[in-house]
Amino acid sequence: MKPEEQLLLALGDVGDDLIEESMHLRFPRARWFRALPMVACCALILGAAMLLQNLEPLRESQITLPEGEDTVQEVLPPDTEAETTSRPFYVLNLDDDLYGAKQAVDQDGTVLVEVEQGKLYPLEDQSTGEVLAIAARDHLELGTPSDSPIVLYDLQGQLFTTLGAQYIACTGEVVAVIRSTGYELYRRSDGSLLTQGTGTVDLRGNFALCTDVDLGLCSLYNADGQLAAQFPSDRYDGGLLEWDGQFYFAVAGESGQLGLMDSHGTWVLEPAYEAITALALNRAVVSRDGEFQVISLETGEAVFTWPYHIYQIHAEGYVVEMADGWEQAVDLEGQPVSALAYRVELVDDNRDGQAELLAEVQMEGYQVIYRRTDGTPVRTASFEGGELTTLSSRVAQYRPNDGNIEYLLNLETGEKIIQLAHPYFWLERVEDYDAALLYTASYRGADGEQHTDLLNEFGEVVLADICTSVTGIHLGDGVFAAERDGKRVLARVDGTVLYESDAPA
């Protein structure tokens, strides 16, 4: 039997079951519930197809050093060699409009799918990051509601099916189908309906959180498709914390006080707090009775209590906000490792929870005192006016008040890096690129238009004229969209052009 015939047979069998199921009062019914069987049959196209594929993807300054031993190690400029490719395709915006022309282009530069005016995105299993299909919506206009359906393509760009919905998302066994009238959740392996509602759905990593406005309920499903917890929506304050790849929810108990719940519906911290604001290292920052505490998730006991707001947990310590806007860093036992400062930063080059430096900004005297994370001073950088912002443990940027970047400061040598390619406004780190420290930097060109370059941390241009569209900057695998001779291209950080569009930029 051909796969297409298997698909039709699967849809017929499960669809008949759903229509029969709709005659029983198992689920709360909204006014539009009469249409659910037909709607569910559309959504089952995805579930049945994934079942046939065995759950596989659908086709593939001045520096003053303190006296004493200099312990700063020599650091070579970052290697910006391209990362190993893993994504089956990249989404290239041909213009900067929210609903503009877009193309899905594979690693060989072949255009798989394109839309003239709409959305184009990878349908991913958010629990694993695996790309399952290409999702497209065309003929959309900003500010105009549209029922334009989602069209699903396999990873070779072949049309798979059309789904009467506005958005589709997946995490493990849970597939969310979102429409203007509400949402449905389906089990990915067999297409069975898990729930439906008239509110919103939030899928991240290993959970799906649904809010039914009519019923006033939040339903929490884990990636296995199991209903983990259900609670009144007014008990969820929107607090969502992530640590070590897991998500946790700040939910009020019967008393109205907040506790911390994991994606399996288990209380990690019993409801006893007024606020829960940070989570890491098996510890949570909570507030109770006007004081802030660091609580061990293992014992439920307070590690220490502090009279001021603690807003960042880090492997090397905490940063706290003192009275009148001053900040201070304390270690894991609550002992201060910095003086009171205008701003305190923990400098983590690799975003691995291990800080390389602690930057203590003192506006009086215009100094940044750099310390080891145990509080030992390493160096002091002095500047006049403006703001000195630490980019990494090796480089800081100085920007005068209401001006462009004047220079970068090499914290290893004390050298000012003044020869920047353009008068840039600011450098901002590319968050999801880990092979090296890369920054976007914008400037106003002679044509009056804003341009953006991709720089390494020492101010050298890696890619010129990249495109910072609404769909993001880094497209994955070290691939970025850029403009070359009036055309949009896909290029790697080493300059290799993977694809050049025929459409003018």
The overall pLDDT average reads 81
Count of alpha/pi helices: 2
Q: CA-to-CA gap between the ends?
A: 47 Å
Flag low-confidence runs: 1-84
Question: Would you mind describing this structure in some detail?
Answer:
The protein has 505 residues and is mostly beta strands. Helices cover 7% and strands 45% of the residues. The protein is built from two helices and 42 strands. Strands 1-31-30-29-28 form a five-stranded antiparallel sheet, with no helix packed on it. A four-stranded antiparallel sheet has the order 5-6-7-8, covered by helices on one side. Strand 18 and strand 19 (258-262) form a beta hairpin. Helix 1 packs antiparallel against helix 2.
What is the topological layout?
Elements: H1 3-21, H2 36-52, E1 62-64, E2 89-93, E3 102-106, E4 111-115, E5 119-125, E6 130-137, E7 150-153, E8 159-163, E9 167-171, E10 174-179, E11 182-187, E12 193-197, E13 200-204, E14 207-212, E15 217-222, E16 227-232, E17 236-243, E18 246-252, E19 258-262, E20 267-273, E21 275-280, E22 283-288, E23 291-296, E24 302-306, E25 309-314, E26 317-321, E27 327-330, E28 343-347, E29 357-362, E30 367-371, E31 377-382, E32 387-390, E33 395-399, E34 407-410, E35 416-417, E36 427-429, E37 438-444, E38 450-456, E39 461-463, E40 479-484, E41 487-492, E42 497-504
Antiparallel strand pairs: 1-31, 2-3, 3-4, 5-6, 6-7, 7-8, 9-10, 10-11, 11-12, 13-14, 14-15, 15-16, 17-18, 18-19, 19-20, 21-22, 22-23, 23-24, 25-26, 26-27, 28-29, 29-30, 30-31, 32-33, 33-34, 34-35, 36-37, 37-38, 38-39, 40-41, 41-42
Helix pairs in contact: 1-2
